């Protein structure tokens, strides 16, 4: 009888141990998959976006010298080295229904066809720095006048023209080509700084993303009164934006006010900061939020960030510091052009910013 009970106990122990071992094996396999995804994702993320003609863009910051090592510069009498561990991601908010009337002027039919890929209505360059564990955002004025690669409606290259940087996205036969050409224009604008990845997101995604994190509370920066869009917000109001109101908050601008894009850009910065912080905090407490956000946004997105890269980013960067002080706006002067507003960059201030964010002093 005792022997039988011992056998039963052994069987019970054997089944229990097998269950534990099986669970542990599954966990280890899952962890192994995550580690592989992280490794592959990291390797992919550290590659610069490959664009046609990329060899034409070279770093041209500061003064070169035979005494300097590769990727080092001499700037204002000090030696700096490019931080090669940085990750830069160009984020584009695309609106294929961008207003065709700006400043009282309208697009010609030729121009509407020319920019068929949609304008980059919002442009943000994200800079992830593993050295100081910070995420920085550079808000790029869509009207910044830069060198843009222009193509005709048949895709034939016409040359470099000085145009608003937002127009570059329109020159492409498909979304991927549009994105890569926008990457090239922004990299050239930043004196050859490499860009590792891109994500173009339809502005239509804002309501779904906004509501996934339960809405975003902001203090209204300027009057946004558009009865046709059910928008009656006044400067100083504190509101929680839900659904379509979030979309119109970052989308609308008063075209009767000069330099209205700067006012809208300020709202976009404010909203982006609040959204990023809330999404980060919720994702850190529940990783399913990050997954849900990714699943939501991918319906509206064209990106070269795949699952492996996203896995690496989600596990590596969620704890990095990000706040309003980490958002930069490019300095310059807005003027009224013949047809549209034009923003001319302060090149000295731009160079200072590039050295501050992308380089480190050599001790």
Description:
The chain has 363 residues and is an alpha+beta fold. It folds into 2 domains: 1-45; 46-361, LCP protein (Aminopeptidase), CATH 3.40.630. Helices cover 38% and strands 26% of the residues. It has helices spanning 2-45, 109-114, 175-189, 206-212, 244-251, 260-285, 287-297, 307-316, 347-358; strands at 72-75, 78-82, 87-95, 101-102, 105-106, 119-129, 134-140, 145-151, 157-164, 197-202, 216-219, 224-226, 231-233, 238-241, 301-303, 327-329, 332-336, 341-345, 359-361. The strands form 7 sheets. A 6-stranded mixed beta sheet has the order 15-10-3-6-7-16, sandwiched between helices. A hairpin with a 4-residue loop joins strand 6 (119-129) and strand 7 (134-140).
Q: Tags for this entry?
A:
alpha+beta; three-stranded antiparallel β-sheet; six-stranded mixed β-sheet; 38% helix; 19 strands; single chain; Aminopeptidase; disordered N terminus; globular; 363 residues
Secondary-structure element pattern, one letter each = HEEEEEHEEEEHEHEEEEHHHEHEEEHE
Unreliable spans are 1-37, 97-113
CATH topology of the largest domain: Aminopeptidase
Care to count the β-strands? 19
Structural topology:
Elements: H1 2-45, E1 72-75, E2 78-82, E3 87-95, E4 101-102, E5 105-106, H2 109-114, E6 119-129, E7 134-140, E8 145-151, E9 157-164, H3 175-189, E10 197-202, H4 206-212, E11 216-219, E12 224-226, E13 231-233, E14 238-241, H5 244-251, H6 260-285, H7 287-297, E15 301-303, H8 307-316, E16 327-329, E17 332-336, E18 341-345, H9 347-358, E19 359-361
Parallel strand pairs: 3-10, 7-16
Antiparallel strand pairs: 1-2, 2-19, 3-6, 4-5, 6-7, 8-9, 10-15, 11-14, 12-13, 17-18
Helix pairs in contact: 1-8, 6-7
